[in-house]
Amino acid sequence: MWERFGEFDSAAEINALAVNLRKEGDKESLKVLARENGIDPDLVEAFWEGDLLYLCDDMAAAIGKIDVEAKELKPVEIMADWVEYLKARCFEDPETARAVRRKGKSLKGAVAALLTWSFKNQIQVDKDIIKAAGVSAGRITLGIPGMARAKRLMADYYLGGSGE
């Protein structure tokens, strides 16, 4: 994922390297930096030309990280919804954007927090529902958090807190 430059802790770290690469005239490395961090190629061009003072802000750095991680994770259905919610939070809340960008925090970690909660909070599915679904198993449990709980769990993973 971050093969060449490693994982960055903040937009400021990305920008410091980007400025140095621009000063050195190393556009190819700047493109690699942007690609590894999910930064839009149009921003690279504008930054290179001097139209932007920095390559990314906290929100772009966070959304870029999520996009890069999602390519590897390949979320579908409810997991894809969680990813989109997290991206929306980065747009709305600068603190969340900075937290998402932090080194050591990851989309996999956030989904793992949701999965951990899910396994700890399974409930038995009513036998009539099981029958109506055409399932022959004697006992089925389900533990998917509602969206309000999922939102709290993701915030707690990235920002700290109890989640419960």
Q: Any key phrases for this structure?
A:
two-stranded antiparallel sheet; 2 strands; 164 residues; single chain
Number of helices: 9
Q: Indicate the low-confidence ranges by residue numbers.
A: none
Q: Care to count the β-strands?
A: 2
H/E series? HHHHHHHEHEH
- What summary fits the major beta sheet? 2 strands, antiparallel
What structural category do the secondary elements indicate?
mainly alpha
User: What is the percentage of strand-forming residues?
Assistant: under 5%
Produce the secondary structure layout.
Layout: H1 11-24, H2 27-36, H3 41-48, H4 58-73, H5 78-92, H6 94-101, H7 107-120, E1 123-124, H8 127-132, E2 141-142, H9 147-159
Antiparallel strand pairs: 1-2
